[in-house]
Amino acid sequence: MGRLIDRGKRERARQQRAVRKQRILEEARSTFERMPFVEVTLDHVGQRAGVERGVTSMYFGTIGGLFLVVLREELESWYAALSEELDRRGKEQGADDLAAVLSHDLTQRRLLARLLSLVPVVFEQNLEPIEVYRFQRWRHDRMSSVGAALEQAGDLRTGAGFHLLYLAQLVAAGLEPAANPRGAAAFDRADPDLVGLVVNLEDELTTLLAGFLRHSHSGV
After folding, report:
1. Looking at 9, 27, 61, which one is the last position of a domain?
2. Is the Cβ–Cβ distance between 135 and 72 less than 8 Å?
3. Co-location of 119 and 163 in the same domain
4. How would you write the pLDDT of the chain (220 residues) with one tens digit per residue?
5. Are residues 67 and 171 in the same domain?
6. Which residues constitute the domain of residue 22?
7. Cα-Cα-Cα-Cα dihedral of 204, 206, 207, 212, to 10°?
8. What is the pTM of this model?
9. φ/ψ of residue 128, rounded to 5
10. What is the domain-level CATH number for residue 86?
């Protein structure tokens, strides 16, 4: 009887941990999207998530570790959705269609675009080299799989799908701050003379990816 009680307690504790971790992750998603990363702390996220002080650190270690978990989940969701869409569409996708598929889904995932724009700073200042290496190994393997699906869908040469997928993420990361400025950076949106500084992330990304695809098709 005692063993059954202990087993029940362990299961309830496991479920409670899972619920707390999920609350923390959901709050982290919201916080990373709306706040400057330098202002985000584990205590702030944990407090907003309604967990005891120190719990967030126990689960994720550092703010960089928490960021990495959220980034990986968001990327996995995108990679999986992209694979399904490519499978649904079948082969012989033109450059414009394939570029539109990539850019539309990525830019609709505003949190992912935001996280990608933060990667250089977070990886350089907030993570240990082994953490970055393990993440990049996972990322490489997933992009190799999705890249192969892109090559089949667009009749691309070997390796072009991987490069296209990576390029989409790099360009989105670079354009995201200009497309969705925050804080003081958003002030110039009110000045009509500065309209030329406004960037439409989806339009620009589609144009650039379509150009890459045409170059890939040309075999130059």
Report:
1. 61
2. yes
3. yes
4. 556 557 777 777 677 788 888 999 999 999 999 888 999 999 999 989 888 888 888 999 999 999 999 999 999 999 999 999 998 887 778 888 899 999 999 999 999 999 999 999 999 998 999 999 999 999 999 999 999 999 998 888 899 999 999 999 999 999 999 898 887 777 767 778 777 788 899 999 999 999 988 877 655 4
5. yes
6. 1-61
7. 130
8. 0.88
9. -80, 150
10. 1.10.357.10
